[in-house]
Amino acid sequence: MRTNYELSDKMTELLNSYNRNSNAFQELIGEGGYMPPNQELLIDAISALSMGKNILLKGPTGAGKTKFAETLSMLFQQPMFSVNCSVDLDAESLLGFKTLANKDDQQVIEFVSGPVINAMQHGTFLYIDEINMAKPETLPLINGVLDYRRTITNPFTNELVSANKGFNVIAAINEGYVGTVPLNEALKNRFVVIEIPYIEGEQLKQLIQENTQLNDEHTIDLFVTLSADLIQAVVQGKIAEDAASIRALLDACDLSVLIPAERAIQRAIVDKLEEDREREFVLNLAATLF
Q1: Global pTM exceeds 0.70
Q2: pLDDT tens sequence across 43-79
Q3: What is the CATH number assigned to the segment(s) 9-195?
Q4: What is the DSSP letter of 208?
Q5: Contact criterion met (CB below 8 Å) for 225 and 289
Q6: AAA+ ATPase domain: which residues (predicted)?
Q7: Backbone phi, then psi, for 95, in 5-degree steps?
Q8: CA distances from 190 to 52, 83, 200 (A)
Q9: What Rg, from alpha-carbon coordinates, does the chain have?
Q10: Distance (Å) of CA 279 to CA 197, 240, 264, 273, 283
């Protein structure tokens, strides 16, 4: 069994003493960290990473996948190199590129490491965002990085790069969006999958209080209700997932400090939607609540 990390005594104690009614993980994360709706998600992610396994965070847009990855990086005290996937992602974006440089008054060709090579050589986390946005022929370049070998032959230098202790991969995926492609089985099998749902209820209220400038409790409660209604509408297929983005909701909360809440919701949420039917639905919800 491959083990990349030794958990701190505090983390080990909290993991061992955890129970469903415990507030231990609030202490573990501290202020400003991401608290998953289901605390088992955090336990499972910590356990997988401590054993050297890659994790794939799967969930709707704005559910907090990137914040979750940043929190894991903080908990392990590991810096994190990032890759933002798109259809234009290529080997240079992942691994690095060659460039001309001056050395001893002469021009030489140097290799500038990309995020994958940097994370491997420094023994840190690698975060691959929207991994299913990349072209299917691009990601197999790093299959050896993602499995037990933890190595890659750099095509630009022919050097065999082996990951240092501490290296691990966290990826995030939004399924069903325009431009995304299904992950092939060879790639998916290299990850432990963790489903990230929306934050709701008291946790969402706390998130708003700690991460926005809104401090009026009544208005915060209304935004929490709005979020619950939007999530329910997404489940029922009435609106797109974008409408229930927690990130967008936090923007609306901030704006509502300076402009009317209905207009804040329009700017942060409604105007991002493509269909008139969806826009009208969210505006009616906002008008009813605010």
Answers
A1: yes
A2: 899 989 988 999 999 988 778 888 889 989 988 888 8
A3: 3.40.50.300
A4: H
A5: yes
A6: 51-200
A7: -105, -30
A8: 11, 17, 31
A9: 22
A10: 23, 10, 14, 6, 6
